Amino acid sequence: ASGDADSAREPLERSLSLWEALRLPLWRARTLWDLARVREAADDTDAAARARAEAMGVFRELGAREARDRA
Questions:
Q1: Which residues neighbour 10 within 8 Å (Cβ) at sequence distance 6 or greater?
Q2: pLDDT means per 10 residues in the chain (71 residues)?
Q3: Contact assessment for residue 51 and residue 33, using Cβ atoms and an 8 Å cutoff
Q4: DSSP state, 2?
């Protein structure tokens, strides 16, 4: 997936389901953040913004360092 947004998107989206099934919200949020970067690279800025906002909400809710580091 090096540099190819389309090839990176699918595995990231599959990972979201896995993290949700395993009840690991922090890892799901981290994956959402990465997915936002991929969507942004593919010029899907609306989807990127939604993914980033959802991830940040989880980071804040959990008190994760990402809430501070990525604000």
A1: none
A2: 74 95 97 96 95 97 92 73
A3: yes
A4: T
Q: Specify whether the CB–CB gap between 39 and 55 falls below 8 A.
A: no
DSSP, res 3: T
What is the CA 66 to chain-centroid distance, rounded? 12
Structure tokens at 56: 């940040």
- Structure tokens, 47: 């989807």
Task: Give one word for 23, left, alpha or beta, with left for phi > 0 and alpha for psi -120 to 50.
Answer: left
C-alpha 4/C-alpha 63 separation (Å) is 32
Give pTM, 2 decimals.
0.88
Residues 6+ apart with CB under 8 A from 67: 56, 59, 60
* pLDDT of res. 1: 44
